Amino acid sequence: MTEHSLWRFSRALHRAINERQPQDLEALIDDDVDWAIYGPIDMFPFLGARRGKEAVLEVIRQIAENIRIHRFDRETVMLGVDSAASMMRYSLTSLESNKPISLRVAHFAQFKGGRLSNIRVLMDSFDLVEQALGHSLHLPRMTA
Amino acid sequence: MTEHSLWRFSRALHRAINERQPQDLEALIDDDVDWAIYGPIDMFPFLGARRGKEAVLEVIRQIAENIRIHRFDRETVMLGVDSAASMMRYSLTSLESNKPISLRVAHFAQFKGGRLSNIRVLMDSFDLVEQALGHSLHLPRMTA
Questions:
Q1: pLDDT by residue (tens digit) across A33-67?
Q2: Potential cystine with A25: which of A16, A53, A72, B135 (Cβ 3.0-4.6 Å)?
Q3: In angstroms, rounded to a whole number, what is the distance separating the alpha carbons of residues A111 and A92?
Q4: CB contact under 8 A, A76 and B127
Q5: Would an 8 Å CB–CB cutoff place A102 in contact with chain B?
Q6: Closest to A139 (Cβ–Cβ): which among B40, B75, B141?
């Protein structure tokens, strides 16, 4: 039984980020990949949408310059033939502030011939902002 | 072929929220359901974790008092035998402020005997906060 593309991609991605070794990853990204990490791009310019392998490798390089991954726990995973979705918890450090950040992340990925062709990543972005700022933001209570 | 539990649950949930008719939903929730919608609970007290059918029905009643769903598009869906995950876009109105809100949401759900036993919902919560406030929050740029 062949290993699912998700596992190979995940190992290569974490190696590219933590060790700044993107070589394994390059072969696992489709030339026309459609990539989006939804979140506050004003605060973190390496979030947002990218199209094509070069743009994605460049944004992963920027991510590698800004965060270090200490740990991730995959709480839920669903695998299709050429697709995968997970809910994960990441323990990160923001290298700019040296702050530890604990972040819940969901991704939906599609692969074509073993290469990533589409990924959508969602996170609890308000929680991320508060942790990155290092303090709570006052919010009004909104209830009808 | 039997309809997947997700579709029945989804119809009943939307009916419970928009029409405040939770009767169909009651039969589709496990007594010991484990429920979490991650997000800013200070602003929206109906977010957060709940345990057990009564607590979940109560929080759905609170959600129904606070939002109206105009439309949702399921961009990605993955179905397992007793599980499902989707990435969705919701168009909502906050009934307290009468503001339209467009929100990206991911969920991972598990069913037991056709009833919801576990659900985790993640959303782009910073985007939600800014839309609910009706203005942008100034954020510093964080890059190493």
A1: 999 999 999 999 999 999 999 999 999 999 999 99
A2: A16
A3: 26
A4: no
A5: no
A6: B40
Please name the residues in contact with A114: beta carbons below 8 A apart, sequence gap of 6 or more. Answer: A5, A8, A28
CA dihedral over A39, B50, B29, B117, signed as positive or negative: positive
Task: Quote the CA–CA distance of B107 and A26 in Å, as a whole number.
Answer: 30
Rounded mean pLDDT, B12-27: 95
Amino acid at A139: L
Using one digit for the tens of pLDDT, what is the confidence trace for B65-87?
999 999 999 999 999 999 999 99
B81 shares contact with chain A (CB less than 8 Å): no
Q: What ipTM does this complex have? A: 0.94
- pLDDT tens readout for residues A91-100: 999 998 888 9
Amino acid at A94: S
Two tokens, residue B16:
């419970």
Length of chain A: 144
Q: Yes or no: say if A25 and A57 are a contact pair by the CB < 8 Å rule.
A: yes
* Strand B29-37 with A115-123, pairing: unpaired
Alpha carbons B142 and B144: distance in angstroms, whole number: 7
